[in-house]
Amino acid sequence: MTSPTTDYPLLSRQPHDVVYRLRGQDVTVGSFLHAAYRAAEALPDAPFVINACRQRLWFAVMLAAALLRNQVTLLCSDRTRDQVREVADRYPGLYLATDDPSQDWAVRRHVLPDEPPHVSTGVQAMPCFAATTIAAIVFTSGSTGRPAAHRKTWGSLAERSIDAAACFGFSEEHPAHIVGMVPAQHMYGFETTVLLPLHVPASTWCSAAFYPHDVAAALWSIPAPRVLVTTPLQLGALLRAAIELPPLYRIISATAPLARDLAAAAEDCWRTEVHEIFGATEVASIAHRRTTRDDFWQTYPRVRLQPTGAEDARSVSVIAPFGVPHPLNDVIELRDATHFRLLGRRSDMIKLGGRRVSLAELNRILNGIEGVIDGQFIAPPDLETQPNARLQVFAVAPQREANDILAELRHRIDPLFLPRRVVLVDCLPRNETGKLTEAAIGALRSGRPDL
Known about the structure:
Radius of gyration: 22 Å
CATH architecture of the largest domain: 3-Layer(aba) Sandwich
Number of domains: 2
Strand content: 25-35%
Shape: globular
CATH topology of the largest domain: Rossmann fold
Largest sheet: 11 strands, mixed
Helix content: 25-40%
């Protein structure tokens, strides 16, 4: 049992272990420490820093440097100029760290060097931080309103990495060599591609890995066992690209429900196992399952769920190391303290004519229609108060007609939830993790999805 007074090292690895990989260079613990100490010396004095580094290695170096300077890292999925200014108003004195000097966020900036860390052969002291140290404040994506801020302690981040490694079979005998398609500023990408190498036997690819050909090249560049960290939207694009990949130990998906047939197609195509992570910014990753095999989710080893005692028996709180019990913003069917079935997010549940449905389930059906590359049901604000209000559907389906898709939906969903029409668009304005923010939804409704 861990104690609140426990100290955790910056890296729980050996000096010569490889923690991050670039094209042409492996970054060891020693080299990473050297880069972190050098970066920390150059940082301005400030209580907070927005880490906007795009290259994953420099993101990790900046996180470590901020810890060394007792600065709290702010992680924003939305890094537009307006959103950065809003965060700056909420956290006076902050600055923004970036590896892209060409972009102007209208706040004080610190530009990191555009070069890989120097190889270090020296031995430097391993810094340790109290478990209760606030290492980061992570903002929600804004898909349900103004981004909310959630504090993360160094102890909770370290312990969750250790638990994740146990769930996915990462060990000294089976280290994970990770290629991530998710940005480091998102909680899912932060945990799986930045924090894991610091605490468990794993390394992360830090060069380009977003487009299918880049992902394939990255996977061929790293040793086995290989792990691909992705999202349902990205996984579908990778399958449609029909690119040969090397043997994969695991594919891990999160950020949205993963359709079982999509997971099965990936397993069949690449002879691997597809696993999902369940979590949220407010509670981090808390559970996992193999999509093609498990209906129920299993919590991480030291995570427990307990009923809140509210009128809704499907309301639960999350209990985890170094965290206070936190209510889960999802409707679930609890089998016991460690197993549950996900019924949908509370913000996703809609009611019409006395019947309820999850928007996530409707989206799963829509995206299962042949020819639909991407699609989204959207509920108007007055859906439950105006008798004539109806759901809206936007779809990317270059080879299908809108009326054909509507006819398919008529056979698959309750008529109460049918839209009046399907609007075909060239693309949906999703953010880096595949989500539609409220601003993006507003743009779709106004007929300007390019905003």
